[in-house]
Amino acid sequence: MKKKSLLALLGAFALTACRNAETSSLISGETLVQEKFGLFGTNVQIRITGASQDQMTDLFSLLETYDALTDAFNPRSLNGQTINNLYTLNLEANEGRKITIDPKLKEVLEFGLAMQQATTYKENGVTYSYFNPFIGAITTEWKRFVNPNSDEEKIDAPLTAETLTPLLNDMNSTSLTFDGDTVTRNGKGLVDVGAFAKGFALRKAKNYLDEQGLKAYLINAGTSSLLLGCTRKGDAYTVSLQRPSYGDPKLSITYPAKFEAVGTSGISEQYRVYEGKTYTHIVDPKDGSAEAHYDTVTIKTGDPALADVLSTVIFLGGSDAAEQLSKTYDFGYLIWDGTSIVDVNDKLGMTNQLQKASA
Amino acid sequence: MKVKDFFQKHLGDLITGVVLVSLSCGLMAYYLWPREVTGDLYAFVRHDGELVIDPIVLSGVDQEYTVSLPDDGVSMVIARENHKVRVKSSNCYGQECVRMGAIQTSMQEILCVPNHVSITIATLGNDDISVVPI
Q: N or C, which end of chain A has less CB nearby within 10 Å?
């Protein structure tokens, strides 16, 4: 009996020691640095292997700068100093006035205007334009209806033509003039870069990570904008579109992404159903409508800023827009309408069986 | 004589016993000996053994995390405060997890038996996330 007791005791200690040894081996190797920050109105998750705390701080500062510069709703300061940001530019009193801005904000605005041109296309004599950086006033109005958490006074019914027409006129008659480090907003339309601000910031983050030689990273800016390097093992990440699964991960749409960006537009976070129609925060600049025709559009491409823009355009323009833009840009895409796949291209590299079942 | 006979008869047993006790003490010392921890400490929140939220780094600023599993009837708020984690609120009937207070070392654990939720502290090590939900 004594022998058995001693052996049992020894066994117990041996098992404990093995468990500890396993932990010890797991914590060897390069350090994984992970943190979450509240930026761009969402939680931004950053995971980088082999990064120092200084590099993480640099990355945070970079993202925080773009968050502050592109904030259209709040005055912001950086390093203790109030800055001129989109909020400043959109102030009614600043219409027609030269505003000195940071070159970074200038670059963001120029990118937005360039993408407005680049994503406009003609088909059978009809011009289609689904991206307009001056849509701010209309988007803000729609958020009063769509988003129950909006700080603005809520409205109970969708916007009507009576409300939308003057706002659309303002949007279409507004432009920006750049002169050195100044910009002038000509017109009453309000600048809104919410559709691509996160993606643009991630583009800069990608440049930084490349410069620093960091490969194993993941930046998840609220799931709508992802920047993916490789996993700690050097593999591709698996991006999993959760919406089709309704809680069952086995039914998610999945695709691989490695050293790529993912931009996703959808109704998952902001939508409201009214008289059988679904409304969201993504507004068609053609007529100011916020009615959603699709559930989710996800884009995979090399440039996070482009991914954001394309996901917005294709969410509004559907397969036709995807087909037209595929002539210019190299990207994978998938359009999901809530019950089935509307369209998907090979470049997305979808890896599960849902494609066969639904396409 | 009796003592001498006893030792002669049980010498093997005694040697085995001493060896086993020595080994056990050595292993216990190895396990309990304080060692340098490499990397940040994280809180791992699991439901039935599965991670339900991303690991929470203890070194971060004070923040609250919601654990909402409607299908399992779980609704909890985990708070990171002063580099510790605690259950701030829980819908469980006993509220024992809330009363357990904050933890900050790998020797501590919070268990919410009614909700099947555990919170443990460990380094992230080579733990990898390869699937990114969107």
A: N
Q: For chain B, give every domain's residue range.
A: 1-35, 41-123
Question: A254 contacts in B (CB within 8 Å)?
Answer: 131
For the range A233-237, what are the long-range contacts, defined as Cβ-Cβ under 8 Å and sequence gap of 24 or more? Answer: A233/B128, A233/B130, A235/B130, A237/B129, A237/B130, A237/B131, A237/B132
Contact yes or no for B133 and A232 at CB 8 A? no
For residues A255 and B29, the model is more confident at A255
Does the complex come out with an ipTM higher than 0.90? Answer: no
Separation of alpha carbons A133 and B131, rounded Å: 33
Q: Is B15 on the interface with A (CB under 8 A)?
A: no
Residues of chain B with pLDDT under 50: 36-38, 126
The residue among A173 and A14 whose pLDDT is bigger is A173
Q: B34 CB near a chain A CB, below 8 Å?
A: no
Q: Residue A216 pLDDT more than 60?
A: yes
CB contact under 8 A, A237 and B126: no
* Residue among A14, A32, A235 minimizing CB distance to B130: A235
pLDDT number for residue A287? 93
Tens digits of per-residue pLDDT, A21-71?
Answer: 322 222 234 677 878 788 998 888 898 888 888 899 999 999 999 999 999
The total number of residues shown for chain B amounts to: 134
Range of the domain at A267: 32-89+99-358
- Does residue A43 lie in a domain region? yes
Count structural domains, chain A.
Answer: 1
Chain A CB contacts of B23 below 8 Å: 10, 13
Q: What is the CATH number of domain B41-123?
A: 2.60.320.10
Tokens at residue B64, please? 């609250």
- Using the beta-carbon criterion (under 8 Å), do B37 and A14 form an inter-chain contact? no
Name which of A256, A255, A208, A258 is nearest A229 in CA terms. Answer: A258
